[in-house]
Amino acid sequence: MSDTILYEVLNGVATITLNRPDKLNAFTHKLNHDVRKAVKEASTDEGVRAIVITGAGRAFCSGQDLSGVDESIDHGEVLRNSYGPMVKEIDRCEKPIIAAVNGVAAGAGFSLAIACDFRLASEKASFLEAFIHVGLIPDAANLYNLPKIVGHAKALELAILGEKISADEAKELNLVTKVIPAAEWDQQVRAFAERLASMPTKAIGLIKRNMKAGWQMDLHDYLEKEAYGQRIAGLTKDHQEGVQAFLNKRKPEFQGQ
Amino acid sequence: MHNLQFVEATVVDGVGLIELNRPEVLNAINRPMVTELVELMTAFDRDPEVGVMVITGKGRAFAAGADIHEMAGDSPIDLELLDQFADWDRILSIKKPIIGAVNGFALGGGFELALACDLLFTTETAQFGFPEVNLGVMPGAGGTQQLTKIMGKRKALEWLLTGEKMSAHEAFHFGVVNRLIAPELLLEETMKYAKKVAKQPPLAVRLIKEAVDKAVDYPLDEGMKFERKNFYLLFSSEDQKEGMSAFMEKRSPQFKGK
Q: Which CATH number characterizes residue B223's domain?
């Protein structure tokens, strides 16, 4: 697909691997662009029912590649042109996205991880709000997403103090779903992703859609949104399959339709 | 309606459903499409089986602009003699309510068609815009006028001058659209509302639309007088007698459109 990422689809799971291991998978405009394109590709590919984003080598993603940053740079425009479109594409995607955090997730790498729906952390993973150490604010929707996961007070602490968080600490903060021993990493990530890929994909998408919408709505409007969501889910084949399997006391086989 | 090439039409429970049917070019609006559309709307306007019309686009877009190839070589005199916007102007004289169901891009002429509708229901992912400025021209089928009447001068200019796209949420915020609906349910929800209106007494619906249209253009004093005439006029209808009798007798009215 490109030289900055690897893209592979297997058993309903699209895996997007950030592939600049010698730079700890630091973001360049090209990498932002390629991640956005890959997420879009996975979103529209009907054979894909779950997406994994991970990093090649020892890091997940170390954030912005500072070698391309000089004093003349307009940081706002970099966000509008590179990070914003990537974050919006991830937000638009209705399939479950798992950040498989194999190593350090720093700066915008941290932001990428929390823009995803699930985070699996290798025992070697760590998380770092690096921005404050260079006098910047966490970007790529970091401050938008983080308080929703860990709460306002803790998010503020992480963003301002900028201390490194280990995988176990991340688990305690509900920042990750699971910490996985290094020896079982590949196998457990795959099992988790394939489990999601075998679930009712449309209902997962509607859960994501509604839960996000709820943050911005009052109850009255949300209940209308909920009625839309359940109407749509009620029309899926997976709903029929789930009901039939329940009545016949067998395991459902969801097709993602 | 014979040999419709660029639009499709059906009547369902009193709703005349019109679907723009050039999905391979995102329903780009060419002159024959407008002609067909207006003929169809005129026919629906006279059809007693139709109480309200719904316009939507087949495929991914509502209508992504006008067919540029068609007009690129035209001279001002060609355009004056062709008088293509006469068809567009006739949309404004349709008496029955027109509801737009905007399922994707509504750009340029597509946005103008949307603005020519009385109500707009849209998906949360729809996008609106007037990209004409980037081609060295400007909207010509009512875009500058209609958008300004809805949003006000400042807001309308913001989009008209850059040609940037307006999201469905922005359009909703500024009152350009009535409802944001999940894409999967746009037509279903729009039809639900349309069928409700189609069951209303047709003469009242007709004169309400006419009076509200006048409110946009008339000074208040003139508008009030216009409203009053329409109000009095409805007292000559059978539906007024039926509606008021049914109310007093505590039963459901049976309207006939007379």
A: 1.10.12.10
